[in-house]
Amino acid sequence: MSTYARQTGRTVTLPASLDEAVAALAAMPAAVPVAGGTDLMAAVNSGLLRPAGLVGLGRISEIRGWSYADGHALLGAGLTHARMGRPDFAALIPALAAAARAAGPPQIRNAGTLGGNIVTAAPTGDALPVLAALEATVVLAGPDGSREVPVSHLLTGMDPLRPGELLAFVRAPLLHAPQTFLKATARTGPGRATASVALVLDPARRGVRCAVGAVAPMPLRPLEAEAWVAGLIDWDGDRTLEAEACTAFGEYVAMACIPDPADHADPANPAAGELPPAVAHLRRTVAALARRALGRALS
């Protein structure tokens, strides 16, 4: 049963089920769903966002766990980073657990949720490159029922949330193969990523999938680099590569995600094609992260 309250001029609804949450959004279309609120409440407190109401999702137990079906895990959008960082979850989806553990200090990990990371779609969201590399999908619940779309379509705006919809679940494949997540920050310890790389091996499809986060508005997939390195791996053998191949892969990924300027080949102005120092440093960072991610996955 939903609970209603008034808070500083806005209505706060606390539904106890997904159906109640969808009904609350239908009754109050200008309301905003909120789970952990680590990003949303910061925007509210700074005056950047003035929602007419809030629909709190914290009491909905069905979106705070996970289940299994057809070789996939169905992850509740209310899973916190702290919960995903535990060993039992890490045994299922190691890269997502690593991203959750890197999401920030304890107060952020305890409150922030998987669904919030996706819906907020901040470029530095740690879960986003992992979900892109996994080719995960999201289940959206709305007044007309539920629908499932690739997470990449939601992030790019190809298939955005419709009025009255909320993100209920994330469907991720259980690959039972090595996967890694690495990130660089501007300071020691937990912090926002300046660059991140997620990499997963998919032996069943003999593929390598990689996504780079924080360097663009959404995670980037270096598809040619993935195909190139997958072709070098002996999938029926020990799946090892020489260090030079890992280094070349890192450079391939970095060049794909942080390309040279369009006027790079202008002979009349050789200096015009040089990357600014900060961008060149970022490219080197991405190359190092991709090289290390592949090396760890193959070790």
What is the strand content?
Answer: 15-25%
By DSSP, the count of extended strands is 12
Number of helices: 12
What is the CATH topology descriptor of the largest domain?
Enolase-like, domain 1
Widest beta sheet: strand line-up: 5-6-9-7-8
Order of SSEs: EEHEHEEEHHHHHHEEHEEEEHHH
Main beta sheet: 5 strands, antiparallel
Radius of gyration: 21 Å
Name of the CATH superfamily of the largest domain: CO dehydrogenase flavoprotein, C-terminal domain
**What do the pLDDT scores average to?**
91
At the first level of CATH, what is the class of the largest domain?
Alpha Beta
Instruction: Provide the low-confidence segments as ranges.
Output: none
Total of domains:
3
Shape: globular
**Helix content, binned percent:** 25-40%
Distance between the termini: 51 Å
Derived from helix and strand composition plus strand pairing, the structural class reads alpha+beta
Architecture of the largest domain, CATH level 2? 2-Layer Sandwich
Domain FAD-binding PCMH-type: 4-177
InterPro entries: CO_DH_flav_C_dom_sf, Diverse_Substr_Oxidored, FAD-bd_PCMH, FAD-bd_PCMH-like_sf, FAD-bd_PCMH_sub1, FAD-bd_PCMH_sub2, Mopterin_DH_FAD-bd
Keywords: FAD, Flavoprotein, Oxidoreductase
Protein name: FAD binding domain-containing protein
Describe the structure.
- The mean pLDDT is 91.
- The chain is built from twelve helices and twelve strands.
- The protein folds into three domains: 45 residues; 112 residues, Uridine Diphospho-n-acetylenolpyruvylglucosamine Reductase, domain 3 (2-Layer Sandwich); 120 residues, Enolase-like, domain 1.
- A hairpin with a 2-residue loop joins β7 and β8.
- The protein starts with a strand and ends with a helix.
- The protein is globular.
- A five-stranded antiparallel sheet has the order 5-6-9-7-8. The protein has a four-stranded mixed sheet with strand order 1-2-4-3, with helices on one face. The chain has a three-stranded antiparallel sheet with strand order 10-11-12, with helices on both faces.
- With 299 residues, it is an alpha+beta fold.
